[in-house]
Amino acid sequence: MAGRFITIEGGEGAGKSTAQLRLRATLESRGISVVCTREPGGTPLAESIRQTLLDVEGEAPVEMAELLLIFASRAQHLAKVIEPALAAGKWVICDRFTDATFAYQGAARGLSNELISTLERLVQEGRQPDAVILMDLQPHIGMERAKSRGALDRFEQEQHHFYERVRSGYLARVHENPARYTVIDAEQELQSVYNELDKLADRWISEHDR
Ligand code: Z5A
Could you tell me the CA-to-CA distances from 164 to 4, 130, 149 in Å, in that order? Predict the structure, then answer.
């Protein structure tokens, strides 16, 4: 049976990595083989592109270079990790994917959706997530969580209005295609988030078994 491709999206400190760990534990406890990965990153080459993108010391890429680096890392990640895992029947849970590109490089940096869609078609050749979880919260709450972890990366050093645009970008995507997304209120206490994720995992399993 083919695998399932699930992506987790949201702003800084929204709890994506925490949600990924929970989903993995829940799915594995139901006997499903899971691969957890992230973007940018997921392979040695894609992780080195990630370092370049997040580095606060080196030369900052211009918007177009940033976009192309993100899609270069995505091409590598799809070919080396995501597609093989799906073909082997595994469930892939990816911390961020192309919805992040529309939110960050599109809504926040101002590159056009048309340009991003063109690269999406070229690089993904039709591959889309089967389900997207959006961990939604007010940006200032996510930033407080991110700051409590220590040094901030290049994206985390952006100003507040940047994160507002990221959030609006995500919510606009949900508005355009609600069936694609499950929006989770990421301001809730963690146990409530876990309960929602567990229900979602059970729903996916029953849909997949049908
Ligand atoms: N980027 C891009 O621009 N374009 C793209 O196409 C892609 C990415 C794919 C790196 O991503 C950067 O890449 C990202 C956008 C850009 N910008 N930034 N920054 P990233 O996913 O690695 O970066 P991130 O958003 O900063 O991830 P994060 O800080 O690791 O956040 P998170 O995974 O969403 O959160 P977490 O680690 O699960 O939780 C953060 C803390 O909050 C932690 O201490 C938790 O225990 C706590 N937490 C989590 N949930 C809760 C609740 N419900 N209550 C209380 N505390 C909580």
Answer: 31, 27, 21
